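The aim of this short unit is practical: by the end, you should be able to scan a pair of folded records and say something sensible about each. We start with the first protein, listed as its amino acid sequence and then its structure tokens.
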Amino acid sequence: MMLDLHTTVADWYARHARDLPWRRPGTTPWGVLVSEVMSQQTPVARVAPVWEQWMARWPRPGDLAAATPADVLRAWHRLGYPRRALRLRECAVAVVERFAGEVPATEEELLTLPGVGGYTAAAVASFAHGRRALVLDTNVRRVLARVSEGRALPPPGLTVAERAHAAGLLPEDPGLAVLWNEGVMELGALVCTARSPRCAHCPLADRCRWRLAGAPPDADAARRRTQSWHGSDRQARGRLMARLRELPEGAALGEAELLAPLRADAADPDQPARALAALVADGLVSRPAPGAYALPT
């Protein structure tokens, strides 16, 4: 029964997997690691072109390790909070210094790298090195919650019981485990989506407990926090970073000039200064001179 579940997902994946650049033959473990970091809370459609540009410019960890923080932040474009870009550069430095420029294969070693958490370590071990690893992202958790537990969505936070249940479904064979990880993740991204699941196209529809129960609503809806992007501090930080990325190499802006566009339309008058202070604290903005701000060098 379990083998049938695994092969059903693997067969579906073989027919429907998206042609993503990091899935193509010849992609290195470094390329897989970069794709995983870039894809954190960022749509794949936005990641793909940036990943290709990034890998063309810095194909090996040593190439990125030698880049300046300013160049890295400019190349990151708008992939989400740019602290990930600097952490990826720190990761490249660690790979060069501690692993002779080769991305390690075990989850234990991967977890020692800056910016690599449990999900990323498992994903790189599985997708880059073909190892049996438990890969649990939002898409995987949603599919397993619906198919196995009859829930509309998984709990807001990963629980011990949820992890144990997912581990029990992971194939013992490493090759099949990789296909299972890839297939369930793709199924969640393309078919078993959060808001508009396409159950008629799902290979697991006939065994999905959530569907068979009549698709009950999310039991944890009241516990989930939602925050509007428009007008948020995150948006304000993004606008400041966008202005600084547009500056020529070595150029800086005074505080008044940098914050003026935000001050013109901010509902919270303290937000522009607060956003700038957060960027400085995170090392994403430097102060080359009193009252002047630029990308870090």
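Turning to the second protein, read its sequence before its tokens, just as you did above.
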Amino acid sequence: MDMLRVNMLTLTELTRRCLPGMVERGWGRVLNLGSIGSFSPAPMTAAYAATKAFVLSLSLALRDELKGTGVTVTALCPGPTETGFQARAEMADSALIAGKRLPTAVAVADAGYEAMKRGKPYLVTGASSRVFAFGSRFMPRTATSRISGQAQRRIG
């Protein structure tokens, strides 16, 4: 429940409170934290992926609503990142993570900041994550869910 509150309710409330001032000034930038999980159902992390799908959907919708106001919204959707999340989620031995060198949180945050400054609608970090996010548009949701589930399986 805490994750749902932070990723959806708190994000929505903070955005609702901050946007009017930005619109009034005629300038502002919003950077929301999504995930590669924003693009597909994800077995083993279903609720997490659902909250991140909310973040991406809200961000893209607000972006269109705010056209012409001087305010942009960007969703940063990182792939696996070295944050300690994998240990907390007990997935460090998953096919998605095990044996891979992950980008640092600082590198991902810097990339997101640059995307926000450029007014990009969203940024997916990591080559394989970009391929998955792009390809997920052309696959049935059941197929992307299956792929996500296979990536979460333990290999150890």
